[in-house]
Amino acid sequence: MNAIRTWVDEHTGRTVRQLTAMPEGAAVPYFRMPKHLPDGWMLIHARHEGGHLAALHPDTAELRPIRIGPPLAYLKHLPASGRAWFTSGREVWTAFLPDGEAERLARVPDDAPGSIADITCDGRTVILVEIVEEEKLALPIAQDAEYFWRFFARKRHGRIWGWNVASGALTKLVETTDVGFQHIDTSPADPTLVRYCHDMFEATGQRIWTVRTVRPEPRAIRPQAYGEMITHEFWWADPSLIGYTYQDRRDDPTLHDLPWAELAPEAVATRLGIADLEGREVYLSEPLNCYHTHLYVSRDGRAVCGEGTLGHSFAYAAPFSTSEPRIELQPLATIHTPYLLFRGQQVNCDFSADSRWLLFNDTVDGRLQVLAAEVG
């Protein structure tokens, strides 16, 4: 297999391949963003003279810049068809990756509320998000519990809207009076379904929700009791399911002083949970080997990966079956990027199309680059 550089990991004994060496760095996109292109290629962020996206092949380390026309911000991508959507201000563009020409799809009216957050998988409904904050506060990335609670107590409210591209109709889907929104993510298979989460401390209220553009009645995904921490949600390989991480801190006396999931006592184990679209939990794993910032699943649903933290800085992978509650996550490669509370290490690991390789981000010579470790 080709690579820029290859070495044996000093802690795991596994071979690691460096696939990129971009002068400004390169990165696998955020963990919940689809990355698979036709013929085994993967979508990555890599700035070049024609844009900021590239196609990378995990086997050969070949890198092909993606040039799609005017400067556009990446919005969404559907691996099954190769169709992607982009934005330029309030304009929405579409193209087939990796080589299609970008075409202007629509322009969201200036008087429509909020900003563009996503688009449904049929390209017919643009999701707009409107958040009003009375006070802007920086993320609580330092270990300061007083500031942590002040951050989540800040005054804010919001709305999620659906704007129909063909008719111009605007529909209010969700409105809140005491929280904002994060992780707006339309279904990769259902053109009426939107998943989102409340901008809140995950252990103090209902975090994950879905809403339909045709029936704006929000539905709680895995209803929570106070102290249950459910977060880092993502579409499962079967998009009629939603994955997430789970910690039970209902009897944890450190919840107020150590609210960060990665600092919770060892007795408060992280688990992988899966819920159906009715919101019912259909799978909950046994405790994992450490706290994982993000868990994710292969395209065929037969493997999972994770990103360890704070003393467990590795990219992990394991076989997976819904009939087996125990997940044996194995460390494949050491992560050298400094860890930040609330920010993690930008690992964003994901499997290649054939699940042979785990692709992930790590710092090499001061730059974030894309690396790969063999899963088997």
Question: Explain this structure to me?
Answer:
The chain is mostly beta strands and 376 residues long. It has one helix spanning 145-152; strands at residues 5-8, 15-18, 26-27, 42-48, 51-56, 63-66, 73-77, 83-88, 91-96, 103-107, 115-119, 125-133, 156-164, 170-176, 180-186, 193-199, 208-212, 215-220, 228-235, 241-248, 270-276, 281-284, 292-297, 303-308, 314-319, 330-334, 350-351, 357-364, 367-374. The protein has a five-stranded antiparallel beta sheet with strand order 1-2-29-28-27, with no helix packed on it. The protein has a four-stranded antiparallel beta sheet with strand order 3-4-5-6, with no helix packed on it. Strand 13 and strand 14 form a beta hairpin. The protein starts with a strand and ends with a strand.
Question: Can you describe this structure in just a few lines?
Answer:
The protein has 376 residues and is mainly β. 2% of the residues lie in helices and 46% in strands. The strands form seven sheets. The chain has a five-stranded antiparallel beta sheet, with no helix packed on it.
Which of globular, elongated, flat, extended, rod-shaped describes the shape? globular
Percent helix, as a range, is: under 10%
- Number-wise, the strands total 29
Q: For the residues shown, what is the average pLDDT?
A: 95
Radius of gyration: 20 Å
Our measurement of the CA-to-CA distance between the termini, rounded to an integer number of angstroms, reads 15 Å
Beta-strand residue percentage: over 45%
Series of secondary-structure elements, N-terminal to C-terminal: EEEEEEEEEEEEHEEEEEEEEEEEEEEEEE
Oligomer: single chain
What's the number of helices?
Answer: 1
Reported for the largest beta sheet, the result is: 5 strands, antiparallel
Q: In terms of structural class, how would the helical and strand content be classed? A: mainly beta
Largest beta sheet: strand ordering: 1-2-29-28-27
Question: Unreliable stretches, pLDDT < 50, 5 or more residues?
Answer: none
